[in-house]
Amino acid sequence: MTIIDNSRPMFLSAPNISTTHGFSTRCGGVSRGVFESLNLGTSRGDEPDCVRENYRRVKKELGIDRMTFNKQVHVDRIRTVGLSDAQEIYGPPSPEADGLITRDRGLALIVFTADCIPLLLHDPVAGAIGAIHSGWRSTALDIGPKAVKRMCAEFGSRPEDIQAAIGPAIDKCCFETGEDVRQAMLAVMGAGADLFIAPKGGGKYMTDLKGIVRSRLISAGLKAENISVSPLCTLCRRDLFWSHRAQGDARGSMASFIALKD
User: Fold this and answer.
1) With contact defined as beta carbons under 8 Å apart, do 97 and 158 qualify?
2) Are 100 and 70 in contact (CB under 8 A)?
3) 102 CA to centre of own chain
4) Does residue 246 fall inside a structural domain?
5) Which domain holds residue 159?
6) In-domain check, residue 108
7) Percentage of residues in the chain with pLDDT exceeding 90?
8) Which site among 40, 92, 128, 139 is 20 to 30 Å from 227 CA-CA?
């Protein structure tokens, strides 16, 4: 993962994604208190004027104007969207889903995270993109491969052409889970899931969710060399990110963006 800016950047970028994109950090905004400073969540309790200014800065930094997003509910629902779906923050309620795909240029797809995996997809051949919120529940529902299949069916993408970027998220060093998560991953991956789930004792496991998402993308036909994985852990690096596991509801939200260039 390549850092765009300095030691406290507003965005991180993936080396293999050639279209407009970014994984936001908590740096470079105007929010205060527990939301300091680039909070991009509109339902956390932050002052709306601060969030609006944060988005103004984001749009200027990335060179985007129109955007769309979901009300994320940890499912495998993926919306195909276009320019007519562009929306403003603090507007009407968003549809419930955890993935977005489009081939319309100039529309930024957004997913929100604070430990879960932001997954960005880019097919430079067919001209299509996707943005996926992949928490453990949606990962167990195979949301990543389902997004790939949708891009192939609706846009004529080929898996071998798709570039994927797994952004900053809670990593295996900090993601302690129970038997429920292990069983959910075994259901979708079979015994191969245990390659990514290390027993800790007492019915607890340390789970490599990034590794699972990468493995499932490869199973969907993506080339391993076309998948970049951020080494940054959101819980370890609370100077750069918010972590729901560490901070609970008293926090802001990061956002990941991807848009096809006009």
Assistant:
1) no
2) yes
3) 16
4) yes
5) 2-169+210-259
6) yes
7) 96
8) 40
Q: Would residue 197 count as lying in a domain?
A: no
Which of 262, 255, 9 minimizes the C-alpha distance to 109?
255
Q: At 130, list the tokens.
A: 């996707």
**Distances from the Cα of 200 to the Cα of 148, 173, 186, angstroms:** 33, 11, 17
CA distance 8 to 168: 14
Can you tell me which residue has the tokens 């240029």? 105
Sign of CA dihedral 243, 245, 246, 251: positive
CA dihedral 13, 238, 173, 244 (to 10 degrees): -100
Rounded distance between C-alpha atoms, residue 80 and residue 71, angstroms: 15
Could you give the number of structural domains in the chain? Answer: 1
Dump pLDDT digits (tens) for 178-208.
999 999 999 999 999 999 999 999 999 999 9
Q: What's the pLDDT tens digit per position in 45-98?
A: 999 999 999 999 999 999 999 999 999 999 999 999 999 999 999 999 999 999
pLDDT in tens, 216-250: 999 999 999 999 999 999 999 999 999 999 999 99
What sign for the dihedral angle of Cα 196, 130, 44, 23?
positive
Q: Is residue 183 part of a domain?
A: no
- CATH, residue 48: 3.60.140.10
108-138: pLDDT as tens digits: 999 999 999 999 999 999 999 999 999 999 9
What element of type H or E holds 41?
A: none
What is the number of other CB atoms lying within 10 angstroms of the CB of residue 200? 12
